[in-house]
Amino acid sequence: MGRNARYMTLVLAVATVGxxxxxxxxxxxxxxxxxxxxxxxxxxxxxLYGVETAGKEKGYAVIKGDAKDKAExxxxxxxxxxxxxxxxxxxxxADAVAVAxxxxxxxxxxxxxxxxxxxxxxxxxxxxxxxxxxxxGRLQGxxxxxxxxxxxxxxxxxxxxxxxxxxxxxxxxxxxxxxFPDIKIVAEKxxxxxxxxxxxxxxxxxxPGMHGIFTAADTxxxxxxxxxxxxxxxxxxxxxxxxxxxxxRAALDNGTLTCASLQPAVSMGRDAMRExxxxxxxxxVLGRIEAPALLVTREKVASYDFSKIIAxxxxxx
Length: 317
Known about the structure:
With 317 residues, the chain is an alpha/beta fold. It has 2 domains: 14-131 and 264-290, 3-Layer(aba) Sandwich (Rossmann fold); 133-262, Rossmann fold, CATH 3.40.50. The chain has helices at residues 42-57, 71-83, 100-108, 133-147, 163-179, 193-206, 218-230, 246-254, 265-281, 298-301; strands at residues 14-17, 31-36, 61-66, 88-91, 113-116, 127-131, 152-159, 183-190, 210-215, 238-242, 259-262, 288-291, 294-297. It is elongated. The two termini are 18 Å apart.
């Protein structure tokens, strides 16, 4: 994987996109199209909250698209934005390669495209707002290394074949190598959420000296913890992750999750909207914004300020 007043008088027109239903007056307003992989994700929900609140402050209407993790649906949404003649598009790509042609179509029409967290494959984007994924991996390395006493064996679940996951792995490995020479990564596997649980169950049996597990994302940590609990091995492992969904937050509260590195999704959404409005209005576009990596541990979770990271509980995209 980003957490407010100065409201202007223009009413925020919001339409959740399945078929891209929009207000009748949308084309006459300052309107920005936003499409992300899936609304159900706490990260994307927080990013959308940041986009909407910043847009409302600046007097922009927002048309939202839930790609439901399907590239073909996101392509349809992008082309719908083009047909609506939106002033700009903010996108978190469901599939960086597959959606690229539609993004290029928008750019050819003169529409600024700002990427949020997961950029489409294009060298013509107006701006990219993303997390410091290497930093997120580095913070996991520091936390997990200290949690297991600076020595021993760890397993690394690398997540999917995506750039954000690869960068987190790089940050983690570099930190272990540089700062914890007595820690060895003895098992490594890539894959999806369910694969994490399977891999960790195998590691718990195969590596009696393993006491730490890195996971690239929160859903993978949750599955890992479930497997360790079922194997009655939770008490010998420390687990770290990045991002913090509800289940991971509960695991952090009860101590089965040691720590989580975070990206300030709300702030990232706000930054993406600022880049979009600057491009529309002829202001200064930074072109690239990298949000700082943050860390929360069990000891700090109760008092942690999540306002830049998580959307309010009553917010619905």
